[in-house]
Amino acid sequence: MTVVHISSILIGLFSMIFISNCGKYLPWSEGPENEIQIFVSQNDIQVAEELMEKSLFRQSVDVNPESYFTLRYRDPSKFDELQNRHNIVVFAVTDSKNDNGDHLINQLIADGELGTYAGEDPVWVEEDIFSLGQVIAIIRGNHDDISSSLKLKGGWLFDKFDKRYLERISDHLYEINEQTDISEEIFNRYGWTVRVPHDFMIVQEDRPANFVKLGRDYPRRWFTVHWIDNQVGSELHRNSVKNSIRNLAKRFFSDYQFIESGDQPWTINKISIDNREMWRVEGRWETKSANASGGGPFISYIFYDESTKRLFHLNMLLFNPDGKKLFFLREMESMVRTFSINYKKPSRISLRTIVLIASSIIMVFVFWSLWSTWKRQKRLTQSKMEKAKLSD
Question: How far apart are CA 19 and CA 24, in angstroms?
Fold first, then answer.
């Protein structure tokens, strides 16, 4: 069962009715969710590859790194076939002559598809233009302006695609059998909680040490939360974040350690989720024993919560030596975005039920409109017939 708040349902229902009334239907976005379709003419493809790789190409920190997004370069003539894909970039360098990408943008403007696009900023992003759940970026300008803008906004552009990607993962992750009983249990014990997907369970609790570990198998993965109370005025910086990660391993993970090397340095970024500043760290872990070698990527989120005066460390890692790892880490990252200190048990209503209710309301509205039109036409016809009889 999908857990959905009543307010979200009502908003969704009214939105669907509004879209239906306006005569505009948007399908759900489609295709591989971690692909970005980049529409660019052959004249500009070399420039596009150079600038897009810097902004949108990122890999996990691992022996066999995996890409966060796969970039697919497409000719603008293919746009109509692929316009409902999840992630789209239309790239055009105005220095070039006979630029198909620029022609495509002009056509979209003429068709009224880019309603808020003013063309003043070389990097422009909007959502839900051709399909629901879609992110589309227009990158247009001369070479120098595009390059300068992407230096400033490249991270922001990546985050736009990444945020919506994590939202789609979350939709799938919690679609069935979300374990609200575990979420409620954690909140009642510790004053914080996360949404717990199907098959995750509490595998370790250390109340005196403020430590909780959630886990599941196939592949084996762990989601841990550690917190320190009474951290009034606590300030975080890169070194303190690194120390926090190393101390977590020493204290709670006796069999393995978090390692950093010149070949595989940790990726450390300061981010914001729901107006809460966090440090995100990505690196690699390895077992300590030479007889049981193993390892894999990890991701940590470290932040201070002002309302509880607690310093939180959320850590995710998995062991899947013969398979892909990044997708499962990203699933756990979507769990991070559900972290809350204000738990309210949501209503249990399945996604199927929501769709059925919304569809039923729309169908009733449509049939009512058709029936009203038919009745009105019938009355007019009868009135004309009666007038004709009287005139005879």
Answer: 6
